[in-house]
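no rush on this but wanted to send it before i forget. theres a chain ive been looking at and ive put its sequence and its fold in token form underneath. i want to understand how the tokens follow from the sequence so walk me through it. thanks a lot i owe you, the record is right below:
>
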Amino acid sequence: MTGWSKCPAVESVPGKVSGNWVFKGTRLPVYTLFENLAAGATIHDFIEWFGGVDESEVEAVLEHVAQELRAQVTHEHSVR
């Protein structure tokens, strides 16, 4: 769905967490953010629980996903 390479807050390094997308400079997979938010955590909870990630990085990931979803909806409407 999303082109993570366009998000400045994340990276994928072969051999690091099996190449999964992680928050830059950490071993924390991006999907961990969404799992915790889905379970009811707040952004501040997440930052407190997982060191090495700050609010601006979380916001960058969320904004990236929002932009990707907007682009997908726009594309779907233009195809119709």
